[in-house]
Design brief:
Length: 262
C-alpha cells in the first residue's frame, strides 16, 4: 500500500492516473527535471518580490524614497494573491492531474510570491535568517534523499502510518489556531512563541515535515515503477514542492523563534 501524509501524493493519485502509452511513462529522472523547473519558477517569483522589499530598505523614510508602510502596501496584494492563487492551483492540480504541466508551474509561481514576500520581512527583522533557512532546507532534502537511497530509512507501513498521524495532528492544530484566531483568540504563547516549549514544538514540526520527504520519494518511485503516464512526472514534482514549501516555512519559523531569544 502507498500511504503518504502529503495529500497530493498518495496511492489513489497514481492509481487513478491509469497507465502510460509505450515509451511515454513516468520516470524518476523526468520527475527530478520537472522538480528543478518548478523550483526555478518559484525562485524567480520569490526573487522578484524580494527585490521590491529589500532593495529600498536601506533608504526607507528618506525624502524621495518609499516608507515602510508604502513598501508593505505595494507588496502585500501580491503576497495575498499568491496565497489564494497557490491554493486554487493546488486544488486544480490535485483534481485534474493531467493539467499538472500547466497548473504546477503556476502553483510554484504563486508560492514564490508568498515565500519571497514573507522571507523578505523575516530578513528585515532577522538579517541572515533566509540564507540559513534555505541552506537547512536543501541540506535536509539532500541528507534524507541519501538516507532513502542507501536504505538507512525505509518507508515501512508503520513508518508511513506514524508520519501520517503526526502530520494530520499538526494540520488539525494549525486549523484550530486559525479558526480561533478569526474570533480574536491568540494561540498559546508557550507553544507558538519563542519559549523553550515553543521552540521544541517547532523542532517537532520541522522533523515531521522533513520525514514527509521520505514518503514523497517512496510514492514517486513506486509511481514510476508502476508505469504511470508521463504527465504524472509534473504531478510528482508538484507534490514534492508542496512538502518543500512547508519544510522551508517551518524552518524559517523555528529560526525566528531562536533568533528572537538572543
Amino acid at each position: 500500500m502507498m500511504r503518504s501524509s502529503n495529500p497530493t501524493l498518495n496511492e489513489n493519485a497514481f492509481r487513478s492516473s491509469g497507465f502510460a502509452v509505450p515509451g511515454r511513462a513516468m520516470t524518476i529522472q523526468g520527475t527530478v527535471n520537472k522538480t528543478l523547473i518548478l523550483l526555478a519558477v518559484l525562485l524567480v517569483a520569490a526573487g522578484w518580490i524580494w527585490n521590491r522589499i529589500i532593495q529600498p530598505s536601506p533608504v526607507v523614510g528618506l525624502p524621495g524614497y518609499p516608507s515602510a508602510a508604502q513598501i508593505q502596501q505595494g507588496v502585500l496584494p501580491f503576497i495575498f494573491a499568491g496565497g489564494i492563487g497557490g491554493l486554487i492551483f493546488a486544488f486544480v492540480t490535485i483534481f485534474k492531474k493531467e493539467w499538472a504541466m500547466v497548473t504546477a508551474p503556476l502553483y510554484a509561481a504563486c508560492e514564490g510570491l508568498v515565500l519571497g514576500g514573507l522571507s523578505a520581512f523575516f530578513e528585515i527583522q532577522y538579517p541572515g535568517i533566509v540564507v540559513q533557512a534555505v541552506g537547512l532546507t536543501f541540506a535536509t532534502l539532500f541528507c534524507l534523499l541519501m538516507a532513502y537511497k542507501s536504505g538507512m530509512i525505509r518507508a515501512t507501513e508503520k513508518f508511513k502510518l506514524g508520519i501520517f498521524v503526526a502530520t494530520a495532528g499538526i494540520a488539525l492544530f494549525y486549523f484550530i489556531v486559525w479558526i480561533v484566531g478569526m474570533f480574536g483568540v491568540s494561540a498559546p504563547g508557550f507553544v507558538m512563541g519563542s519559549t523553550p516549549l515553543g521552540i521544541g514544538f517547532s523542532l517537532f514540526v520541522v522533523g515531521i515535515a522533513a520525514l514527509n520527504l521520505i514518503l514523497d520519494f517512496d510514492i514517486i518511485e513506486r509511481g514510476a515503477e508502476s508505469g504511470a503516464p508521463e504527465y504524472m512526472e509534473w504531478y510528482g514534482a508538484f507534490g514534492l514542492m508542496v512538502t518543500l514549501v512547508w519544510l522551508y516555512m517551518e524552518i524559517l519559523r523555528l529560526l525566528s523563534k531562536v533568533r528572537s531569544r538572543n
